[in-house]
Protein backbone atom coordinates (compact mmCIF):
# COMPACT_ATOMS: atom_id res chain seq x y z
CA UNK A 1 0.00 0.00 0.00
CA UNK A 2 1.32 3.42 -0.97
CA UNK A 3 2.26 5.62 1.97
CA UNK A 4 0.74 9.06 2.44
CA UNK A 5 2.95 12.12 2.14
CA UNK A 6 3.61 14.26 5.22
CA UNK A 7 5.08 17.73 4.80
CA UNK A 8 7.55 19.41 7.17
CA UNK A 9 7.44 23.15 7.75
CA UNK A 10 10.27 24.74 9.73
CA UNK A 11 9.77 28.03 11.60
CA UNK A 12 13.19 28.26 13.27
CA UNK A 13 14.03 31.55 11.56
CA UNK A 14 10.85 33.25 12.80
CA UNK A 15 9.43 31.43 15.85
CA UNK A 16 12.93 30.36 16.86
CA UNK A 17 14.10 33.96 16.71
CA UNK A 18 11.60 34.74 19.49
CA UNK A 19 13.61 32.56 21.91
CA UNK A 20 15.12 34.51 24.77
CA UNK A 21 18.77 35.16 23.89
CA UNK A 22 18.47 34.25 20.18
CA UNK A 23 19.13 36.97 17.62
CA UNK A 24 19.77 35.82 14.05
CA UNK A 25 21.83 37.98 11.72
CA UNK A 26 21.14 37.98 7.98
CA UNK A 27 24.10 35.64 7.44
CA UNK A 28 22.84 33.37 10.22
CA UNK A 29 19.47 33.09 8.53
CA UNK A 30 21.03 32.20 5.20
CA UNK A 31 23.23 29.52 6.79
CA UNK A 32 20.33 27.98 8.73
CA UNK A 33 18.08 28.06 5.66
CA UNK A 34 20.72 26.17 3.66
CA UNK A 35 21.15 23.67 6.50
CA UNK A 36 17.39 23.03 6.61
CA UNK A 37 17.31 22.71 2.84
CA UNK A 38 20.11 20.13 3.01
CA UNK A 39 18.10 18.18 5.58
CA UNK A 40 15.22 17.94 3.11
CA UNK A 41 12.69 20.16 4.89
CA UNK A 42 9.76 20.97 2.60
CA UNK A 43 9.08 24.54 3.78
CA UNK A 44 11.38 27.02 5.49
CA UNK A 45 9.77 30.13 6.93
CA UNK A 46 12.33 32.90 6.72
CA UNK A 47 10.66 35.63 8.74
CA UNK A 48 8.42 38.66 8.53
CA UNK A 49 9.36 41.05 5.70
CA UNK A 50 8.71 44.64 6.64
CA UNK A 51 8.80 43.93 10.38
CA UNK A 52 12.57 44.44 10.76
CA UNK A 53 15.57 45.25 8.53
CA UNK A 54 17.04 41.73 8.70
CA UNK A 55 13.92 40.03 7.40
CA UNK A 56 13.29 42.74 4.84
CA UNK A 57 16.84 42.27 3.48
CA UNK A 58 16.44 38.48 3.52
CA UNK A 59 13.39 38.61 1.28
CA UNK A 60 14.93 41.18 -1.04
CA UNK A 61 17.57 38.79 -2.37
CA UNK A 62 17.67 35.66 -4.46
CA UNK A 63 18.42 32.34 -2.76
CA UNK A 64 19.57 29.06 -4.28
CA UNK A 65 17.34 26.69 -2.30
CA UNK A 66 15.18 23.69 -3.18
CA UNK A 67 12.85 24.20 -0.23
CA UNK A 68 9.69 26.31 -0.46
CA UNK A 69 10.94 29.53 1.12
CA UNK A 70 8.08 31.20 2.92
CA UNK A 71 7.31 34.73 4.09
CA UNK A 72 5.17 35.30 7.16
CA UNK A 73 2.82 38.16 7.97
CA UNK A 74 -0.65 39.27 9.00
CA UNK A 75 -3.82 39.26 6.98
CA UNK A 76 -5.03 42.69 5.93
CA UNK A 77 -5.99 44.99 8.74
CA UNK A 78 -9.69 45.47 9.49
CA UNK A 79 -11.19 48.41 7.64
CA UNK A 80 -8.46 48.51 4.96
CA UNK A 81 -8.28 47.09 1.50
CA UNK A 82 -5.48 44.73 0.51
CA UNK A 83 -4.05 47.40 -1.80
CA UNK A 84 -3.95 49.89 1.09
CA UNK A 85 -2.24 47.66 3.65
CA UNK A 86 1.57 48.12 3.90
CA UNK A 87 2.03 44.77 5.65
CA UNK A 88 0.30 42.81 2.92
CA UNK A 89 2.17 44.82 0.27
CA UNK A 90 5.50 43.83 1.85
CA UNK A 91 4.49 40.17 1.71
CA UNK A 92 3.38 40.36 -1.91
CA UNK A 93 6.62 42.13 -2.90
CA UNK A 94 8.87 39.68 -1.03
CA UNK A 95 10.96 37.21 -2.98
CA UNK A 96 9.24 34.18 -1.50
CA UNK A 97 7.79 30.98 -2.92
CA UNK A 98 4.92 30.97 -0.46
CA UNK A 99 3.18 33.32 1.96
CA UNK A 100 1.92 32.30 5.38
CA UNK A 101 -0.74 34.62 6.77
CA UNK A 102 -1.54 34.58 10.47
CA UNK A 103 -5.24 35.08 11.18
CA UNK A 104 -7.36 35.26 14.30
CA UNK A 105 -9.65 32.26 14.74
CA UNK A 106 -10.91 32.86 18.27
CA UNK A 107 -13.92 35.17 18.27
CA UNK A 108 -12.82 36.63 21.62
CA UNK A 109 -9.55 37.86 20.05
CA UNK A 110 -11.41 39.19 17.05
CA UNK A 111 -13.50 41.41 19.31
CA UNK A 112 -10.84 42.38 21.87
CA UNK A 113 -7.50 42.36 20.02
CA UNK A 114 -8.62 43.31 16.49
CA UNK A 115 -11.60 45.34 17.71
CA UNK A 116 -13.62 44.30 14.71
CA UNK A 117 -16.54 42.06 13.80
CA UNK A 118 -16.40 38.33 13.12
CA UNK A 119 -17.58 38.96 9.56
CA UNK A 120 -14.81 41.52 8.87
CA UNK A 121 -12.21 39.08 10.13
CA UNK A 122 -13.49 36.41 7.72
CA UNK A 123 -13.39 38.93 4.88
CA UNK A 124 -9.80 39.82 5.80
CA UNK A 125 -8.80 36.16 5.54
CA UNK A 126 -10.51 35.75 2.17
CA UNK A 127 -9.09 38.96 0.70
CA UNK A 128 -5.52 38.23 1.81
CA UNK A 129 -5.51 34.67 0.47
CA UNK A 130 -7.03 35.81 -2.83
CA UNK A 131 -4.45 38.58 -3.25
CA UNK A 132 -1.53 36.20 -2.69
CA UNK A 133 -3.03 33.57 -5.00
CA UNK A 134 -3.44 36.22 -7.69
CA UNK A 135 0.29 36.94 -7.34
CA UNK A 136 1.00 33.26 -8.02
CA UNK A 137 2.09 32.39 -4.50
CA UNK A 138 1.36 29.25 -2.58
CA UNK A 139 -0.65 30.33 0.46
CA UNK A 140 -0.81 29.09 4.03
CA UNK A 141 -3.00 30.45 6.81
CA UNK A 142 -1.98 30.01 10.44
CA UNK A 143 -5.21 29.99 12.43
CA UNK A 144 -3.92 31.54 15.63
CA UNK A 145 -5.24 30.16 18.97
CA UNK A 146 -7.37 27.76 16.94
CA UNK A 147 -7.85 25.18 19.68
CA UNK A 148 -8.85 27.73 22.31
CA UNK A 149 -11.14 29.34 19.76
CA UNK A 150 -12.67 26.00 18.87
CA UNK A 151 -13.38 25.17 22.51
CA UNK A 152 -15.05 28.57 22.98
CA UNK A 153 -16.96 28.73 19.69
CA UNK A 154 -16.39 25.78 17.34
CA UNK A 155 -18.60 27.16 14.59
CA UNK A 156 -16.63 30.38 14.28
CA UNK A 157 -13.21 28.73 14.50
CA UNK A 158 -14.25 26.35 11.72
CA UNK A 159 -15.60 29.22 9.65
CA UNK A 160 -12.15 30.89 9.77
CA UNK A 161 -10.46 27.68 8.63
CA UNK A 162 -13.04 27.16 5.87
CA UNK A 163 -12.69 30.77 4.68
CA UNK A 164 -8.97 30.19 4.19
CA UNK A 165 -9.43 26.86 2.42
CA UNK A 166 -12.30 27.95 0.19
CA UNK A 167 -10.33 31.05 -0.88
CA UNK A 168 -7.52 28.85 -2.14
CA UNK A 169 -5.08 28.35 0.75
CA UNK A 170 -2.92 25.28 0.15
CA UNK A 171 -2.60 24.73 3.89
CA UNK A 172 -4.83 25.66 6.78
CA UNK A 173 -2.64 25.40 9.87
CA UNK A 174 -4.25 24.83 13.27
CA UNK A 175 -2.19 26.59 15.94
CA UNK A 176 -2.01 25.69 19.62
CA UNK A 177 -0.57 29.12 20.24
CA UNK A 178 -0.37 29.06 24.03
CA UNK A 179 0.65 25.39 24.19
CA UNK A 180 -2.12 24.45 26.59
CA UNK A 181 -4.00 21.80 24.59
CA UNK A 182 -3.48 18.12 25.39
CA UNK A 183 -2.99 15.30 22.86
CA UNK A 184 -6.47 13.75 23.22
CA UNK A 185 -8.01 17.20 22.63
CA UNK A 186 -5.80 17.79 19.60
CA UNK A 187 -6.82 14.47 18.10
CA UNK A 188 -10.52 15.11 18.67
CA UNK A 189 -10.51 18.66 17.29
CA UNK A 190 -8.28 17.94 14.27
CA UNK A 191 -10.54 14.99 13.50
CA UNK A 192 -13.52 17.35 13.48
CA UNK A 193 -11.74 19.82 11.20
CA UNK A 194 -10.83 17.15 8.66
CA UNK A 195 -14.51 16.34 8.18
CA UNK A 196 -14.94 19.75 6.56
CA UNK A 197 -11.43 20.41 5.17
CA UNK A 198 -9.43 17.60 3.54
CA UNK A 199 -6.61 16.42 5.80
CA UNK A 200 -4.03 16.89 3.05
CA UNK A 201 -4.71 20.63 3.39
CA UNK A 202 -4.48 20.72 7.21
CA UNK A 203 -1.37 21.47 9.26
CA UNK A 204 -0.50 21.54 12.97
CA UNK A 205 1.54 24.20 14.77
CA UNK A 206 2.16 23.24 18.41
CA UNK A 207 3.87 25.07 21.25
CA UNK A 208 5.53 23.25 24.13
CA UNK A 209 4.16 24.92 27.24
CA UNK A 210 2.95 21.62 28.73
CA UNK A 211 5.81 19.54 27.23
CA UNK A 212 3.26 18.12 24.75
CA UNK A 213 4.27 19.78 21.47
CA UNK A 214 5.79 16.67 19.86
CA UNK A 215 2.98 14.46 21.14
CA UNK A 216 0.39 16.98 19.96
CA UNK A 217 1.94 17.11 16.50
CA UNK A 218 1.87 13.32 16.18
CA UNK A 219 -1.70 13.21 17.52
CA UNK A 220 -2.72 15.69 14.81
CA UNK A 221 -1.17 13.46 12.15
CA UNK A 222 -3.07 10.45 13.49
CA UNK A 223 -6.27 12.52 13.28
CA UNK A 224 -5.67 13.49 9.65
CA UNK A 225 -3.33 16.52 9.46
CA UNK A 226 -0.66 16.18 6.81
CA UNK A 227 1.68 19.08 7.56
CA UNK A 228 3.73 19.51 10.74
CA UNK A 229 5.28 22.82 11.75
CA UNK A 230 8.14 23.04 14.23
CA UNK A 231 11.66 24.27 14.85
CA UNK A 232 15.14 22.82 15.15
CA UNK A 233 15.91 21.92 18.78
CA UNK A 234 12.44 23.13 19.75
CA UNK A 235 13.41 26.81 19.72
CA UNK A 236 10.59 29.26 20.29
CA UNK A 237 9.09 31.78 22.66
CA UNK A 238 8.34 30.78 26.25
CA UNK A 239 8.83 26.98 26.41
CA UNK A 240 9.50 26.56 22.71
CA UNK A 241 7.82 24.95 19.70
CA UNK A 242 7.42 21.38 18.53
CA UNK A 243 10.92 19.98 18.09
CA UNK A 244 11.48 18.77 14.54
CA UNK A 245 14.69 17.07 15.67
CA UNK A 246 12.48 14.67 17.65
CA UNK A 247 9.59 14.55 15.19
CA UNK A 248 11.60 13.72 12.06
CA UNK A 249 13.22 10.48 13.31
CA UNK A 250 9.95 9.41 14.92
CA UNK A 251 8.20 9.72 11.56
CA UNK A 252 11.07 7.95 9.81
CA UNK A 253 11.79 5.15 12.25
CA UNK A 254 8.71 4.36 14.31
CA UNK A 255 6.27 1.66 13.18
CA UNK A 256 2.86 3.28 12.68
CA UNK A 257 4.26 6.47 11.20
CA UNK A 258 6.95 4.84 9.07
CA UNK A 259 4.53 2.28 7.68
CA UNK A 260 1.76 4.77 6.85
CA UNK A 261 3.64 7.93 5.88
CA UNK A 262 6.64 9.17 3.98
CA UNK A 263 8.53 12.45 4.42
CA UNK A 264 11.04 14.30 2.28
CA UNK A 265 14.00 13.48 4.56
CA UNK A 266 16.05 10.61 3.14
CA UNK A 267 17.93 8.03 5.21
CA UNK A 268 21.21 9.79 4.43
CA UNK A 269 19.77 13.17 5.40
CA UNK A 270 18.51 11.65 8.66
CA UNK A 271 22.09 10.69 9.50
CA UNK A 272 22.98 14.41 9.41
CA UNK A 273 20.34 15.28 12.01
CA UNK A 274 22.59 15.23 15.09
CA UNK A 275 25.21 17.36 13.32
CA UNK A 276 22.57 19.90 12.29
CA UNK A 277 21.22 20.11 15.84
CA UNK A 278 24.69 20.76 17.23
CA UNK A 279 25.57 23.22 14.49
CA UNK A 280 22.57 25.37 15.36
CA UNK A 281 23.57 25.35 19.04
CA UNK A 282 27.11 26.34 18.05
CA UNK A 283 25.83 29.26 16.00
CA UNK A 284 23.74 30.45 18.96
CA UNK A 285 26.58 29.87 21.43
CA UNK A 286 24.38 27.49 23.41
CA UNK A 287 25.50 24.28 25.09
CA UNK A 288 23.75 21.34 23.38
CA UNK A 289 21.16 19.52 25.47
CA UNK A 290 22.98 16.32 26.43
CA UNK A 291 19.68 14.62 27.18
CA UNK A 292 17.91 15.59 23.94
CA UNK A 293 16.06 12.59 22.44
CA UNK A 294 17.80 10.97 19.47
CA UNK A 295 20.67 13.49 19.13
CA UNK A 296 21.93 14.26 22.66
CA UNK A 297 25.21 12.88 23.97
CA UNK A 298 23.27 10.88 26.55
CA UNK A 299 20.53 9.66 24.20
CA UNK A 300 22.26 6.31 23.73
CA UNK A 301 24.46 6.28 26.82
CA UNK A 302 24.36 3.74 29.62
CA UNK A 303 26.23 3.71 32.89
CA UNK A 304 25.26 0.61 34.85
CA UNK A 305 27.46 -2.42 34.25
CA UNK A 306 24.62 -4.92 33.88
CA UNK A 307 22.97 -2.82 31.17
CA UNK A 308 26.28 -2.17 29.47
CA UNK A 309 27.01 -5.87 29.18
CA UNK A 310 23.54 -6.55 27.79
CA UNK A 311 23.72 -3.68 25.28
CA UNK A 312 27.02 -4.93 23.90
CA UNK A 313 25.51 -8.39 23.35
CA UNK A 314 22.11 -7.27 22.04
CA UNK A 315 21.86 -3.54 21.26
CA UNK A 316 18.67 -3.94 19.20
CA UNK A 317 16.48 -4.75 22.21
CA UNK A 318 18.08 -2.18 24.53
CA UNK A 319 18.03 0.79 22.13
CA UNK A 320 14.77 1.95 20.59
CA UNK A 321 16.55 2.89 17.32
CA UNK A 322 20.07 2.50 16.00
CA UNK A 323 22.04 5.61 17.08
CA UNK A 324 23.84 5.73 13.73
CA UNK A 325 20.52 6.26 11.96
CA UNK A 326 20.33 9.81 13.33
CA UNK A 327 24.06 10.56 13.26
CA UNK A 328 24.63 9.74 16.93
CA UNK A 329 26.66 6.99 18.59
CA UNK A 330 26.39 4.54 21.45
CA UNK A 331 28.16 5.53 24.65
CA UNK A 332 28.89 2.95 27.32
CA UNK A 333 30.08 5.17 30.12
CA UNK A 334 32.97 4.45 32.42
CA UNK A 335 32.16 5.23 36.05
CA UNK A 336 32.11 3.75 39.53
CA UNK A 337 28.70 2.27 38.63
CA UNK A 338 30.14 0.36 35.70
CA UNK A 339 32.18 -2.79 35.33
CA UNK A 340 34.57 -4.55 33.00
CA UNK A 341 32.06 -4.43 30.12
CA UNK A 342 31.92 -0.63 30.27
CA UNK A 343 35.71 -0.38 30.20
CA UNK A 344 36.11 -2.87 27.37
CA UNK A 345 33.44 -1.10 25.29
CA UNK A 346 35.10 2.28 25.70
CA UNK A 347 38.55 0.86 24.92
CA UNK A 348 37.15 -0.70 21.76
CA UNK A 349 35.61 2.62 20.74
CA UNK A 350 38.91 4.47 21.05
CA UNK A 351 40.76 1.76 19.14
CA UNK A 352 42.74 0.12 21.97
CA UNK A 353 42.83 -3.65 21.57
CA UNK A 354 43.29 -5.29 24.96
CA UNK A 355 42.47 -8.83 26.06
CA UNK A 356 39.56 -8.83 28.51
CA UNK A 357 41.62 -10.95 30.91
CA UNK A 358 44.58 -8.57 30.91
CA UNK A 359 45.25 -7.74 34.61
CA UNK A 360 45.71 -4.10 33.64
CA UNK A 361 41.96 -3.88 32.93
CA UNK A 362 41.23 -4.58 36.59
CA UNK A 363 43.85 -2.01 37.56
CA UNK A 364 42.28 0.59 35.24
CA UNK A 365 38.80 -0.07 36.61
CA UNK A 366 40.08 0.21 40.18
CA UNK A 367 41.84 3.47 39.33
CA UNK A 368 38.64 4.88 37.84
CA UNK A 369 36.65 4.00 40.94
CA UNK A 370 39.29 5.44 43.29
CA UNK A 371 39.48 8.68 41.33
CA UNK A 372 35.70 9.01 41.08
CA UNK A 373 35.56 8.65 44.87
CA UNK A 374 37.74 11.79 44.94
CA UNK A 375 35.30 13.62 42.67
CA UNK A 376 36.38 12.82 39.09
CA UNK A 377 33.55 11.98 36.67
CA UNK A 378 34.73 10.01 33.65
CA UNK A 379 31.24 9.29 32.38
CA UNK A 380 31.19 12.89 31.14
CA UNK A 381 34.90 13.22 30.34
CA UNK A 382 35.74 10.87 27.51
CA UNK A 383 39.10 12.42 26.68
CA UNK A 384 40.38 12.31 30.27
CA UNK A 385 39.39 8.65 30.50
CA UNK A 386 41.21 7.86 27.27
CA UNK A 387 44.38 9.52 28.58
CA UNK A 388 44.10 7.60 31.86
CA UNK A 389 43.62 4.33 29.98
CA UNK A 390 46.54 5.00 27.67
CA UNK A 391 48.81 5.77 30.61
CA UNK A 392 47.91 2.48 32.33
CA UNK A 393 47.64 0.24 29.26
CA UNK A 394 50.17 1.85 26.99
CA UNK A 395 51.90 5.16 26.92
CA UNK A 396 51.21 8.84 26.51
CA UNK A 397 54.28 10.74 25.30
CA UNK A 398 55.78 13.34 27.62
CA UNK A 399 55.24 16.19 25.21
CA UNK A 400 56.04 19.00 27.61
CA UNK A 401 56.35 19.74 31.28
CA UNK A 402 54.66 22.67 33.00
CA UNK A 403 57.21 23.90 35.50
CA UNK A 404 55.18 26.78 36.87
CA UNK A 405 52.10 28.88 36.31
CA UNK A 406 50.84 32.04 37.92
CA UNK A 407 47.45 33.75 37.70
CA UNK A 408 46.73 37.31 38.72
CA UNK A 409 43.38 39.14 38.80
CA UNK A 410 43.29 42.88 39.28
CA UNK A 411 40.92 45.81 38.98
CA UNK A 412 42.19 48.96 37.33
CA UNK A 413 41.17 51.90 35.20
CA UNK A 414 41.59 51.44 31.47
CA UNK A 415 42.59 54.10 28.96
CA UNK A 416 39.01 55.34 28.82
CA UNK A 417 38.90 55.86 32.55
CA UNK A 418 36.53 52.92 33.06
CA UNK A 419 37.13 50.54 35.94
CA UNK A 420 37.73 47.01 34.60
CA UNK A 421 38.73 43.63 35.98
CA UNK A 422 41.61 41.99 34.12
CA UNK A 423 43.02 38.46 34.51
CA UNK A 424 46.58 37.66 33.49
CA UNK A 425 48.37 34.30 33.52
CA UNK A 426 52.00 33.33 33.00
CA UNK A 427 52.94 29.72 32.17
CA UNK A 428 56.46 28.28 32.08
CA UNK A 429 56.81 25.06 30.10
CA UNK A 430 59.78 22.94 29.06
CA UNK A 431 59.77 21.41 25.57
CA UNK A 432 62.77 19.31 24.47
CA UNK A 433 64.86 20.87 27.22
CA UNK A 434 63.94 24.39 26.15
CA UNK A 435 62.10 26.63 28.61
CA UNK A 436 59.27 28.68 27.12
CA UNK A 437 57.44 31.39 29.04
CA UNK A 438 54.12 32.72 27.79
CA UNK A 439 51.69 35.27 29.17
CA UNK A 440 48.05 35.77 28.32
CA UNK A 441 45.13 37.99 29.29
CA UNK A 442 41.55 36.83 29.48
CA UNK A 443 38.10 37.70 30.70
CA UNK A 444 38.73 35.49 33.72
CA UNK A 445 41.57 33.46 35.27
CA UNK A 446 40.73 30.25 33.39
CA UNK A 447 40.52 32.02 30.04
CA UNK A 448 43.86 33.72 30.75
CA UNK A 449 45.44 30.36 31.66
CA UNK A 450 44.10 28.80 28.48
CA UNK A 451 45.51 31.63 26.35
CA UNK A 452 48.93 31.47 28.04
CA UNK A 453 49.21 27.65 27.94
CA UNK A 454 48.43 27.42 24.23
CA UNK A 455 50.41 30.47 23.19
CA UNK A 456 53.74 28.74 22.59
CA UNK A 457 54.35 25.01 22.83
CA UNK A 458 57.30 25.02 20.50
CA UNK A 459 57.26 22.23 17.95
CA UNK A 460 53.77 21.18 19.08
CA UNK A 461 52.16 24.53 18.39
CA UNK A 462 51.04 23.56 14.90
CA UNK A 463 48.94 20.73 16.34
CA UNK A 464 46.89 22.94 18.65
CA UNK A 465 46.34 26.07 16.57
CA UNK A 466 42.78 24.94 15.74
CA UNK A 467 41.91 24.02 19.32
CA UNK A 468 39.25 26.04 21.15
CA UNK A 469 37.20 25.70 24.32
CA UNK A 470 33.44 25.50 23.78
CA UNK A 471 32.07 24.91 27.27
CA UNK A 472 33.20 25.22 30.90
CA UNK A 473 31.27 23.82 33.85
CA UNK A 474 32.07 23.90 37.56
CA UNK A 475 30.43 21.87 40.29
CA UNK A 476 31.02 22.21 44.03
CA UNK A 477 31.20 18.65 45.38
CA UNK A 478 30.93 19.40 49.10
CA UNK A 479 30.04 22.38 51.20
CA UNK A 480 32.19 24.52 53.45
CA UNK A 481 35.39 26.48 53.10
CA UNK A 482 37.33 23.36 52.02
CA UNK A 483 34.95 22.54 49.20
CA UNK A 484 36.25 20.36 46.38
CA UNK A 485 35.46 21.58 42.86
CA UNK A 486 35.04 19.54 39.72
CA UNK A 487 35.66 21.26 36.39
CA UNK A 488 34.52 19.88 33.04
CA UNK A 489 35.87 21.52 29.89
CA UNK A 490 34.56 20.78 26.42
CA UNK A 491 36.95 21.42 23.53
CA UNK A 492 36.65 21.40 19.76
CA UNK A 493 39.25 21.22 17.02
CA UNK A 494 39.38 22.44 13.44
CA UNK A 495 37.74 19.22 12.23
CA UNK A 496 34.67 19.85 14.40
CA UNK A 497 35.41 16.95 16.74
CA UNK A 498 34.56 17.56 20.40
CA UNK A 499 35.81 16.03 23.62
CA UNK A 500 35.50 16.64 27.35
CA UNK A 501 38.14 16.64 30.07
CA UNK A 502 37.89 16.79 33.86
CA UNK A 503 39.88 18.21 36.75
CA UNK A 504 39.27 17.98 40.51
CA UNK A 505 40.84 19.99 43.32
CA UNK A 506 39.92 22.13 46.34
CA UNK A 507 41.29 24.99 44.21
CA UNK A 508 39.12 25.85 41.20
CA UNK A 509 42.15 27.20 39.29
CA UNK A 510 44.04 23.94 39.82
CA UNK A 511 41.08 21.79 38.77
CA UNK A 512 40.61 24.01 35.70
CA UNK A 513 44.28 23.68 34.81
CA UNK A 514 44.09 19.88 35.05
CA UNK A 515 41.22 19.86 32.58
CA UNK A 516 43.03 22.32 30.30
CA UNK A 517 46.16 20.17 30.32
CA UNK A 518 44.21 17.03 29.47
CA UNK A 519 42.52 18.86 26.60
CA UNK A 520 45.83 19.94 25.06
CA UNK A 521 47.51 16.56 25.57
CA UNK A 522 44.50 14.74 24.12
CA UNK A 523 44.65 16.92 21.03
CA UNK A 524 48.33 16.06 20.59
CA UNK A 525 47.62 12.33 20.97
CA UNK A 526 44.70 12.58 18.57
CA UNK A 527 46.88 14.38 16.03
CA UNK A 528 49.58 11.71 16.22
CA UNK A 529 52.25 14.03 17.62
CA UNK A 530 55.39 12.29 18.87
CA UNK A 531 57.69 13.30 21.70
TrEMBL record:
Q: A GO molecular function for this record? A: (R)-citramalate synthase activity
- Enzyme Commission designation: 2.3.3.21
Is the keyword Repeat assigned to this protein? no
An example Gene Ontology biological process:
isoleucine biosynthetic process
Q: Which InterPro entries match?
A: 2-isopropylmalate_synth_dimer, AIPM/Hcit_synth_CS, Aldolase_TIM, Citramal_synthase, LeuA/HCS_post-cat, LeuA_allosteric_dom_sf, PYR_CT
Fetch the Pfam families from UniProt.
HCS_D2, HMGL-like, LeuA_dimer
Query: Which family, according to UniProt?
Result: Belongs to the alpha-IPM synthase/homocitrate synthase family.
Pathway(s): Amino-acid biosynthesis; L-isoleucine biosynthesis; 2-oxobutanoate from pyruvate: step 1/3
**What are the entry keywords?**
Amino-acid biosynthesis, Branched-chain amino acid biosynthesis, Isoleucine biosynthesis, Transferase
Alphabetized CDD domains for the sequence: DRE_TIM_LeuA3
Cross-referenced PANTHER family, in alphabetical order?
A: (R)-CITRAMALATE SYNTHASE (PTHR43538:SF1), ALPHA-IPM SYNTHASE/HOMOCITRATE SYNTHASE (PTHR43538)
Q: Which PROSITE patterns match?
A: AIPM_HOMOCIT_SYNTH_1 (PS00815), PYR_CT (PS50991)
Determine the domain of life of the protein's source: Bacteria
Query: Catalysed reaction(s)?
Result: pyruvate + acetyl-CoA + H2O = (3R)-citramalate + CoA + H(+)
Q: What is this protein called?
A: Citramalate synthase
Amino acid sequence: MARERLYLFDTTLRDGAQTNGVDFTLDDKLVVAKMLDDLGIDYVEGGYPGANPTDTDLFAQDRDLNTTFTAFGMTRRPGRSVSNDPGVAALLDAKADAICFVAKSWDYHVRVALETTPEENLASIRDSVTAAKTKGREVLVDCEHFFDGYKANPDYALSCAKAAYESGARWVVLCDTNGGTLPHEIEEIVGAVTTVIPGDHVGIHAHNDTEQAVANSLAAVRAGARQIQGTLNGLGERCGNANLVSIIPTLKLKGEFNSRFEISVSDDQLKALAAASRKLDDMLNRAPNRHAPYVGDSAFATKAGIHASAILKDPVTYEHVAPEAVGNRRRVLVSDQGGRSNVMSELERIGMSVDKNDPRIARLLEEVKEREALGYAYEGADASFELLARRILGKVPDYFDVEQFDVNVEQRYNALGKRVTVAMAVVKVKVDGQTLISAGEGNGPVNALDVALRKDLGKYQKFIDGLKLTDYRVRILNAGTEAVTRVLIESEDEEGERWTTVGVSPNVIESSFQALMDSVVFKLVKSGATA
